[in-house]
Design goal:
By secondary structure, this protein is α+β, with helices and mostly antiparallel strands. Among the domains are: 50 residues, no CATH class; 88 residues, Endonuclease Iii, domain 2 (Orthogonal Bundle). Helices cover 45% and strands 14% of the residues. It has 14 helices and 8 strands. The strands form 3 sheets. The protein has a 4-stranded antiparallel sheet, with no helix packed on it. Strand 2 and strand 3 form a beta hairpin.
């Protein structure tokens, strides 16, 4: 999503150019050439896309406020944060771009993928032409030479190869993302299925599940999450290196004080609070 100024945001969702304007804390204005997105009325689609129906208070266990009153007072100001229900394929590729690098490079890599291999779309806003690009289709990325694609992955050829393999898997149906959207699939099974693909480990798999497959119970753990689990929740496991075994232990610990069904949603709020209030980071 591209921020034009303090008022307008532009994005392409399901190949539909969308202009979003924040009117107040509780209302937004949507502009689009179509009244439908993905065979759904745009108003209903956007409500689901922004997970409007989620009551963030339910993401934390019943006793959380009593056990961590000072922390709860801090994180309440972050309850307006929403997790977008993003396209599964775009989320898959985007998080494969994100391993071990900062947000600036992640945005740069995804921007280059879209510019080089996506479809160009022009939007006029306030008399100005704005150029956006769609996310490249699986078929388009599947056909790219990994060596050529590495110019979009900070010259990381292994990452480029893994992205091409993933795109090929989606294109030929070997990676059935729609089937993986089934909420009945146990989270551990979903994670392990995603990890069968080169370039995807537990953390990336949980990110794909949380942001692309509607699994708000998925709890991605990175350095920042491990840090706040240690500092705020006195986790001894968080002091250890993030091996696969320790990852699963931290995941289990988090579910003892977060609502397991919304652990990832709560974790996302805690993540942003930690980065801004403790680490004093302002870029996301």
């Amino acid at each position: 999503m591209v921020s034009i100024d303090a008022e307008y945001y532009l994005s392409i969702i399901k190949d539909n150019p969308i202009i979003i304007r924040q009117i107040s804390d509780n209302s937004i204005e949507i502009q689009s050439d179509s009244i439908m997105i993905d065979k759904t009325l745009i108003s209903e689609f956007i409500r689901s896309y922004f997970s409007i129906e989620i009551d963030v208070n339910l993401a934390f266990s019943h006793d959380f406020k009593k056990l961590y009153p000072e922390l709860y007072a801090i994180i309440k100001s972050f309850f307006s944060i929403k997790i977008l229900r993003q396209d599964p394929y775009e989320t898959l590729i985007s998080f494969m771009c994100a391993q071990g690098i900062g947000m600036h490079l992640i945005r740069k890599q995804i921007g280059m993928l879209k510019k080089n291999y996506g479809k160009k779309i022009s939007i006029t806003l306030s008399g100005k032409e704005i150029i956006l690009h769609t996310f490249p289709t699986p078929e388009r990325l599947a056909a790219v030479d990994p060596l050529v694609l590495s110019t979009c992955t900070n010259n990381n050829r292994i990452r480029a190869k893994n992205i091409v393999l993933a795109a090929q898997g989606v294109a030929d149906g070997k990676i059935d993302l729609q089937a993986l959207c089934d909420p009945a699939i146990p989270l551990a099974e979903l994670r392990n299925t995603l990890c069968l693909n080169q370039g995807i480990g537990y953390k990336i798999a949980d990110c794909i599940a949380l942001f692309g497959l509607g699994r708000f119970d998925a709890f991605p753990i990175d350095t920042h999450v491990r840090q706040y689990l240690g500092k705020w929740f006195n986790s001894r496991t968080a002091l250890r290196s993030l091996t696969p075994a320790n990852y699963l232990m931290l995941d289990a610990e988090a579910r003892t004080f977060l609502n397991p069904e919304l652990a990832g949603y709560a974790g996302h709020i805690l993540f942003h609070c930690w980065r801004k209030e403790v680490k004093k980071l302002h870029s996301f």
